[in-house]
Amino acid sequence: MQLDFAARELTIKLVYYGPALSGKTTNLQAIHQLVSSEGRGRLMTLDTRDDRTLFFDLLPLNFVAGSGLTVRLKLFTVPGQVIHNATRRLVLQGADGVAFIADSQRGETKANAAAFVNLKQNLKDNGLDPAKIPTVIQFNKRDLPDVRPDEEIDSLAQKGKEPVFKAVATRGGGVIDTFLGLVRVTWDALEREHQLKQKFQIDPEEVMRNLQSRLGIQEERMRGGLSS
Amino acid sequence: MSDLHALELQMADANRIDDLVDREALGEVCRSFFELFGLPIRLFSAEGSLLADVHQQRSICSYLNGLPEGRAACAQTVGEVRARIPDEGVVVHPCFTGAVYRIVPIMYDGRRLGRFVVGPYLPAELREVPPSLLKVDRGVDPVRAKDYLNEMPRVRTETAEKITAHLSRVLDLILFSGHRAYLTSNMHLASVRSNFRELAEKNQRLQNAYDKLKELDRLKSDFLATMSHELRTPLTSIIGYSEMLASGMGGELNEDQQEFVNTIRNKGDHLLELITSLLDMSKFEQGNIVIRREVVDPERLVEDVMRTVAPAAKKKGVSLDQHIAQGLPRLIGDGPRLRQVLQNLTDNALKFTPSGGRVSIDVSAVDMQSGGEESLDDDAGLVLMMAPQRCLQFAVRDTGIGIPRAEHERVFDAFYQVDSSATREHGGTGLGLSIVKRLVEAHHGTVSVESSPGEGTTFFVRLPESEL
Fold first, then answer.
1. Residue B172 lies in a domain
2. Quick one: B367 and B237 in the same domain?
3. Which of A66, A96, A109, A113 is closest to A208 using CA atoms?
């Protein structure tokens, strides 16, 4: 988090992490399409010729919170390929919150777990405590055959501590839920650590409402996902 | 990388136009803008420095600058325009001539990175020479002022809005592309640094492991040296006392007793040789071997070795042969060590040559390429890297069992034996050739082997001619 008191500007870094081809970039593309152009910048993609993310994707979303504080959300993705670990670690530097995008297909279960272990290690290497960093988990690609069943995910999600979302990022379903869920857990953590409410008189509920309206996220759109 | 840069990379922020775009290219965009619309343009960074400036001095401006009060008013207007920061969108700043400046913020990613100023130009709607112009200086001539004013570009307000909006979009795109390139190159650099750091750490770990192994190797050599020395001491007594027994100092021995004592002595001698080899080896590994430099006579060397092996050769039914060429180069080295080399090779040859075979030593002068092994890999700079050098060559030939081609390199490794069954048949520690190689190399020479199984083996020892 970067806080510029003089400019009354708060920058929050959110990172979309996960194994290769789990749909991190697709999530950002969907957000880019779903939010109104007023609050978002261009989606920047640093990719290779084969369309794989080389360094990261970046989507800036800006809105003004109630008390005149400008909130700048920076959404990053990391490259999922195993060889790009140095890049993943770099992108993860200074992250305030992480959305872990998992591939729902049964065959990808091990890859998901390995990527999560990698996430924890890279957080540690960056001096971040994996137990404390706000995290949400998204099971993407729910529309594909042979995915881990809802009941299995739901029952495990109840035992786990991270909020779990289900999505079909290619159609935009569940993407905004995941994003808002991530902003919420991140903001709650920042509030606990930095007392933003006291310093800027910003209520987290108001932030969420503001975010939704400023970014033009409409209720119907949010409900358009699978989680309805 | 400074902390600021690290932080910028962390958040992928862009705070300076200079970082994102090339100043010259920015100038070209402005020039093209000026050529297309005929409107003067200046581009400033957020800190206020002028990044690009394309304009043409207008007659009205030159005229007014020629008048003392006109010049002051002009300077004041320009100062105001420069100082005006457009916080909330576009600002239109008037000039006393009736012309205007449009000041447009350059926004990127929600931040103001600078501004551009288009003007002065006349709003198309302006018809009359404004009083503010006529009154600015007592010397203003209304007719000339009107003529000059009419030379100024006229733009309708609506058109000016469209033109500046277009330029804003073009600049935004340029900044976006620049930002993308900026992040890419910074990420490349950061990745390379990060990878380098990882590799350096890995190298350090490998170096530590290597140092540890080297230390273990040294301990092993120490152990070998100590043990060999300790083994030799009692062995000397065994050999000495069996010699005394054999010489009859302890009383007459019958034939069987004499044979047994001789066997003890022979085996003792053999064991002593083995232990001496081990000791030599450990000395080499510790780098403790000292090579003397003295004039050595090759012919005497060969004869000496031949004399030593003659009884064994005769017993085995192997004939010995030697050929010493004329005009050999002078050899300087360690006589006893070179004798050891020849002795080892000849012993080996005899060992692997069956009855009826022949072992020979040829000594000749040859030219050897100098310049080290690495320069032989390619022909680059061959003429510089290499020069033929006179060498003394000892060739030890046998007609024995031979060595398979694949083994030629490895026969010089310590403890290596082509066929371990040969050890049982012929004996030996597997140290002989390794010691030969090290001794020859200590003399700056080379040792090589040519052989085909069943057709015998030749070992070549080449020692460079001594320059002193």
1. no
2. no
3. A66
